[in-house]
Amino acid sequence: MFLKFRRQMRLYLHQYMGLVIVTVLLITACQSGVPNSPNLENVRSLSIDCRVVEHAGGETTICGKPQKVVALEPKLLSMMLALDFQPSGYADAGLFNLRQFNNPSKQIPYLGNFVTSQPINLGDRSNPSLETLILLKPDLILGMKWQQNKLLSAIAPTVLIDNTEETWQDNIRILAKTLHREDNVQQVIASHKQHLAEVRTKLAPLVNTHPRVLNIACNQSMDYIEIKYSGDSVQLLEEIGFQSVLLEDVERKPGVRPKVTIETLSQLNADIIIVHTWLDHWDGHSTYNVPLEALKEKWAKNPLLHDSRAWKEGRVYFVDYHAWGGVIGGFIADSLMLEQLPTLLLSPMQGNSKPIFRAAINLINLFDVNYFDNTSSQLGVIPGEPFSVGGTVS
């Protein structure tokens, strides 16, 4: 009994001390951010080099060119990198036992190929470490609207974006103003428009004959199936000219993510089906490789899924949710999808072909920066390359 009491007291003391430490650090951070006695010259110089940024969290005054910037979500890192800005800290979609991303190309799927810094690991995007943020002392914090927290702005100026109502093009303009990268943003958007126009032209004949596309998210055990009503891939396919297959009795609005059974899925009439799947567990140390082939085999063994036109014509495709489902988002995600789509959709029986990583080359050409150590990595296969599956092509 006494030992149990001691253990409980020790736990309470540790929790209490942790709270005290965070509070003290926050107070110190707030006090150190306020000048003791600003003179007229300081005020004048600040007013010249300061700008007010309107964002999803309100307004934030940013002065000068931020140097030490942290991203609390993959979508923010994606836009930072597209603007040729390297992170000092980063919170990924998952929680990894890493102090620092010292080998980002292996530790950060897709986006790590463009990271030349070694950002500090800030933990999970759903619960970024305030203690680590305080110790890092960033000049600027970039977060999502749903991450809004008064403690963040007490640590450093904070800019938030909303990806539920705004496009990445809208949001990247906010970040460009924040990061003093206004000159870069027009190049990024123009490059995307050109790439989109090229793919739209290539896929126009297919859009005419096979316009109805069903996007679903499905885990490896196939006991979670969701019809995708929104997201990067859905929006991109509609911009190309495809029609999204949706449920008749479920209204399309932000936040709607209808879940269905295999029986319901088999009754939906689609010309093309794109299945987004993911790794159930990844520790950030092992090779990132989504088992698309394994899910394809499970799909092939389920007769309920074989009556659709998409299956009979070999137009069921399996892709990585991390790239296609909106986890990384932004220019880089769209570039990845635009590169894969013609190869994926125009060669249904050759879904195992290896598309060149054009997105990487686009960014290198755009900023004239070599993000890779060797040529093979520039032309490397995108991790979790897509597969097609189905019957004989008619």
Summarize the structure.
The protein has 394 residues and is α/β, with parallel strands linked by helices. The protein has helices at 2-32, 40-48, 74-82, 104-107, 130-136, 150-155, 168-179, 182-209, 232-240, 262-266, 292-300, 309-312, 321-324, 330-346, 358-367, 375-378, and strands at residues 50-55, 58-63, 69-71, 89-92, 120-124, 140-144, 158-161, 212-218, 225-227, 243-244, 272-277, 316-320, 387-389.
Protein architecture, described:
The chain has 394 residues and is of the alpha/beta class. The protein folds into 2 domains: 35-180, Nitrogenase molybdenum iron protein domain (Rossmann fold); 185-389, Rossmann fold, CATH 3.40.50. The protein is built from 16 helices and 13 strands. It has helices at 2-32, 40-48, 74-82, 104-107, 130-136, 150-155, 168-179, 182-209, 232-240, 262-266, 292-300, 309-312, 321-324, 330-346, 358-367, 375-378; strands at residues 50-55, 58-63, 69-71, 89-92, 120-124, 140-144, 158-161, 212-218, 225-227, 243-244, 272-277, 316-320, 387-389. The strands form 3 sheets. Strands 8, 9, 10, 11, 12 and 13 form a 6-stranded mixed β-sheet that branches. It has a 5-stranded parallel β-sheet with strand order 5-4-3-6-7, sandwiched between helices. Helix 4 (104-107) links the parallel strand 4 (89-92) and strand 5 (120-124). The longest helix is centred in the first third of the chain and has 31 residues, at 2-32. The radius of gyration is 23 Å and the shape is globular. Mean pLDDT is 78; it is low at 1-46 and 349-394. Keywords: Signal, Transport. One of its GO terms (cellular component) is outer membrane-bounded periplasmic space. It is found in: Cell envelope. Belongs to the bacterial solute-binding protein 8 family. Residues 68-349 form the Fe/B12 periplasmic-binding domain.
